[in-house]
Amino acid sequence: MTGVTARPGYGEFIVLVALIISLVALSTDAMLPALPEIAADLGVMRVNDSQYVISILFVGMGIGQLIFGPLSDSIGRRTAILAGFAVFAAGSLMSLFAPSFEWMLLGRFLQGLGASGPRIVTIALVRDQYHGREMARVMSFAMTIFILVPVFAPAVGQLLLVLAGWRSIFGLFVVLTLVAAVWFWWRQPETLAPQNRLRFSPTRLLLDIGAILRLRAALGYTLAMGFSFGAFVGYLGSSQQIFQVLYDLREWFPLYFGLLASAIGAASLMNARLVMRFGMRLLSTRALAIIWLLSLPTLALALWYDGQPPLWLLMGYLLIVFFCFGILFGNLNAMAMEPLGHIAGLGSALVGSLSTLMSVVFGILIADNYDHTVVPLILGFALLGVAAQGVMAWTARGLAETPR
Predict the structure, then answer these.
(1) What phi-psi label fits residue 200: left (phi over 0), alpha (psi between -120 and 50 degrees) or beta?
(2) Is 144 helix (H, G, I), strand (E, B) or coil?
(3) Cβ atoms within 10 Å, residue 306
(4) Contacts (Cβ under 8 Å, ≥6 apart) of 377
(5) Please, what's the b/e burial string for 44-60 (b: 16 or more CB within 10 A of its CB; e: otherwise)?
(6) Could you give the residue ranges of the DSSP H alpha helices within 30-51?
(7) Is there a common fold for 1-187 and 201-404?
């Protein structure tokens, strides 16, 4: 294979996979401290509009997964991932030199579109080389590295913002993309043999999508993901305004954001043990129940404090909620994918695309209704948690005969 010197070793492959899938988290979280400066420099008149810098990235990701997933089955994993890197780099450059907010949003959309390629196809690339427990082991090691990114990304963004301005953050994206792309091109061979590739057919694609949507488990758990993660996207869009503005934390914002992100990471690591004992469905149902049940009294307290409860109370609430999200992230996706083993590539792309686009819609509604209080965010966690649990119950009723 042109450009490949030798297949990477086990440890090198894990680090490479972690770097590739970390681009999404980095391109989201490193931007958060810079949102006010971007809005001011690019003439954004309405303060809440700055959150579109975050949400438009997820729109691109949602659409891109449906493109790159099936495409990789046709042209190969390596070409699809390198194409995704190219689109992501182009979007980063567009945002770096953006003369207006509209150009910034277009660049961010391209970033999301491009990032979806490496993110979704890398999972297929791992699956091509490893199976069963070995695949789970590779992904677990990679995800352990990936979990650290949201903890430190806002601090990296804040440091670059202070030293060189917000445009330097996009410069970092370009550099990291080039490093990842060259490393991948130089060391990773193609894993999908030409005889195993599928001719890209829009008709077959639509038929397969229809078949997936008729499966109650796949559809139900995908919808549950869309509802529950909508609140999380709403948090990402409004977190900078809540912590830096409402609570006046300023340069301390990355520390608080990283602390909350660590709760997700801790839960993800614990879930590997918990799921073997309690099962995916029970853990997910309990996690959703804790989120919306805890949100109700917290909402009442937030209203009592005129929308700004003490910081310690908000942090305690969010730490518990995000720990629950760490349980949900892996389990809901695994349950949605369980009946799709025969079309895992397209299934993964459709599950990811539909849940991402749903979460963007709800996330925008939450962040766009930020009113200098935490009420919209907590209300979003409560309502979307109830909706997700309702869909879980509907799904479980149809699968009552199937043990978990």
Answers:
(1) beta
(2) helix
(3) 10
(4) 231, 234, 235, 238, 242, 366, 370
(5) beeebebbbbbbbbbbb
(6) 35-41
(7) yes
* C-alpha to C-alpha distance for 386 and 132, rounded to whole angstroms: 34
**Least confident stretch, 127-141, 197-211, 249-263:** 127-141
Q: Give the CA distances from residue 170 to residues 25, 64, 242, in Å, rounded to whole numbers and listed in that order.
A: 14, 20, 24
CATH architecture for segment(s) 201-404: Up-down Bundle (1.20)
Residue 300 CA from chain centroid, whole number: 30
Question: pTM of the predicted model, to two decimals?
Answer: 0.84
Q: What is the CATH number of domain 1-187?
A: 1.20.1250.20
Domain locations along the chain: 1-187, 201-404
**Max CA pair span of the chain:** 65
> Does position 313 have pLDDT exceeding 90, yes or no?
yes
Q: Which two tokens stand for residue 368?
A: 């766009």
Mean pLDDT across 155-183: 92
Listed residue (73, 339, 59, 334) closest to 204, CA to CA = 73
Q: Are 105 and 53 in contact (CB under 8 A)?
A: yes
